[in-house]
């Protein structure tokens, strides 16, 4: 996150570019080059900045190099400064080399000299110049078409450097919110505004958001998660399963009938998880269809007692449950010929 801030310091400190958003920087050819190192912090740990930036930006490499240098520094050095060696006590004062870099120390501790060695110690001034956390109360407003506006209020800025707000969210399926069943936190926006529009809020899910204020000095972390939010829109039925096909078709020795295993790809990213599949199949000359229900976690079914060398049609439908409502998706169909007898 620090690399983003140094980009803002370079470019947003100019009144002509003070639009309060990263959108301008992302769309500007020169400014966007310094955002690139922020997207690949793992690569910066294994190669020099010059090797990372120059192949990507032969012309505009200076901004990338400056940002890369900052990101590498932010990754290597934790917030705050080391206390005076004479202030170390207990194990922190031991004449041992228990660490070589901040990354080897737990939590917010830094690798600091103590006069006769290096140990992990609590830093001084860890939050000097670091912006305060935004206020916990997040205001959420949904448009009828689906986008969600998330607003927050910042506290007094303790430094002159630009502040970037990092917005994260997590969500869970179901009729009620659940932190235990929620996804991991994911970053969905970085902005210098105190609001953001999220276009991809899905019905049938409970969302939670949190915000962190970051500048070149660091961050105090994320706010406590806000209240749960669920879209007012009703979830859609799941899409049809894809790539319906016969995996194998074999003749059973006992009665001469055929068993065929049909497989499929589950519907991609439905609003509500698939509860079960309805499978129906029938012979072209028969008047009746046979039916079967398959658990929504499965992606195959075996059809038994088929006539050898006969043409069959199989239909597959995904069904989701939303409270008392059953959401039935469109059917996928497949025509196949059962294996022939000996």
UniProtKB/TrEMBL annotation:
<dbReference type="InterPro" id="IPR040957">
    <property type="entry name" value="Anosmin-1_Cys_box"/>
</dbReference>
<dbReference type="Pfam" id="PF00041">
    <property type="entry name" value="fn3"/>
</dbReference>
<protein>
    <recommendedName>
        <fullName>Anosmin 1</fullName>
    </recommendedName>
</protein>
<dbReference type="InterPro" id="IPR036645">
    <property type="entry name" value="Elafin-like_sf"/>
</dbReference>
<dbReference type="GO" id="GO:0005576">
    <property type="term" value="C:extracellular region"/>
</dbReference>
<dbReference type="GO" id="GO:0030182">
    <property type="term" value="P:neuron differentiation"/>
</dbReference>
<dbReference type="GO" id="GO:0030414">
    <property type="term" value="F:peptidase inhibitor activity"/>
</dbReference>
<dbReference type="InterPro" id="IPR008197">
    <property type="entry name" value="WAP_dom"/>
</dbReference>
<feature type="domain" description="Fibronectin type-III">
    <location>
        <begin position="134"/>
        <end position="234"/>
    </location>
</feature>
<dbReference type="GO" id="GO:0009986">
    <property type="term" value="C:cell surface"/>
</dbReference>
<dbReference type="InterPro" id="IPR013783">
    <property type="entry name" value="Ig-like_fold"/>
</dbReference>
<dbReference type="InterPro" id="IPR036116">
    <property type="entry name" value="FN3_sf"/>
</dbReference>
<dbReference type="InterPro" id="IPR003961">
    <property type="entry name" value="FN3_dom"/>
</dbReference>
<feature type="domain" description="Fibronectin type-III">
    <location>
        <begin position="240"/>
        <end position="341"/>
    </location>
</feature>
<dbReference type="Pfam" id="PF17869">
    <property type="entry name" value="Cys_box"/>
</dbReference>
<feature type="domain" description="WAP">
    <location>
        <begin position="75"/>
        <end position="124"/>
    </location>
</feature>
<dbReference type="InterPro" id="IPR042447">
    <property type="entry name" value="Anosmin-1"/>
</dbReference>
<dbReference type="Pfam" id="PF00095">
    <property type="entry name" value="WAP"/>
</dbReference>
